[in-house]
Predict the structure.
Amino acid sequence: MQQRIWDGRHVKVLLRQPTTLLREETYRAWISEHGGLSTIYQQLESIRLPSKLSELRTLLLEAENTPACDVVAKQLNISTKTVYRHMDRLAIELATALNQLDHL
């Protein structure tokens, strides 16, 4: 049984700056073992989430460059504070899902 390596902070890096995360051997190896970034992103996209969290996830996964929080807020029609709250909730949900991939 593998250790749970994903937490909210690392999921945020995965969503916003994946190349930074890939510099860490633990995450690079885990991502490689699970099919690479595109496979991980497909799995994350398939997770059922509340509407606003789902929209935020899709926006982050599809963005060429990480959009600034004020841009995300405008696109989702929510406040910047709400973007941060949603990002925290999203990161926790996705961390749980990523950690469960080792137990399927």
Summary: The CA atoms of residues 73 and 81 lie 9 Å apart. The chain has one domain: 8-103.
